[in-house]
Structure formats: C-alpha cells, structure tokens
Design goal:
With about 120 residues, this protein is an alpha+beta fold. It has 4 helices and 6 strands. It has one domain (about 5-110). The strands form 2 sheets. A 4-stranded mixed beta sheet has the order 2-1-3-4, with helices on one face. The protein has a two-stranded antiparallel sheet with strand order 5-6. It is globular and about 35 Å long. The two termini are about 20 Å apart.
Length: about 120
Amino acid sequence: MLKIEFLYWEDCPSHPEAWQLLQEVLAEEGLDWPVERIQVAGDLDAQRWDFPGSPTIRVDGKDLDPPGADQMGVALACRVYRLDSEEGSRFSPVPSREMIRRGLLAARGDAAPGLTST
C-alpha cells in the first residue's frame, strides 16, 4: 500500500479544497489508501518537511508537481500550481483533479486514460 502525505499550513485558505479533491479522486479510483494529514506549523516544520507551500501532496515521498515544488523552495506560504490545458496555462492555489489522479495512478503503476505520467 502506498503512503500519501497531505501537508498544509493552517493560514492558507486553499488547503480544504485540495483535501476534498484528494478524497474525491481516491474514491473515484477506488483507492483505499491511508492519507497522513500533516500540519506544518512554523518555519522549523517547513524545513523538517522540506515544505514547498500549502497544500502539498506527496505519494510515496514524491511530490505531485516536482518542478513546481523545486521552484517554490522551502516556504511557510501558500503554494501555486501551474495547470496546463489545451486552452493554455493558468495558475491555481490547488492541484487539479487530473494532476492528483495522474500522481496517484503513476505511483500505482497505471496511466489514466488520456493522461501521461511525468
């Protein structure tokens, strides 16, 4: 069974939406994987968890958006995700449903229909 970590900073208003999206995608895919919910409370916690901002989702230690995490560095801040689509790119305070699904299925060893692993 894979390990999922949901890291968040309480002062960031987007973490409840990301938590809900994660729960929905897990249910849609029929994945009964435990999720460790980790509150990052200060700068020391941010360093300890190598925290690129809130919310962060890791599957078996791998961030859903490694390039985005690398760009953010370690910060006790709200995170920004770059979402690409046929219409272009936009920035969002939460990962997309597709980004979450792709990360979960890649960790499981699958590929979602119409999506490629990165």
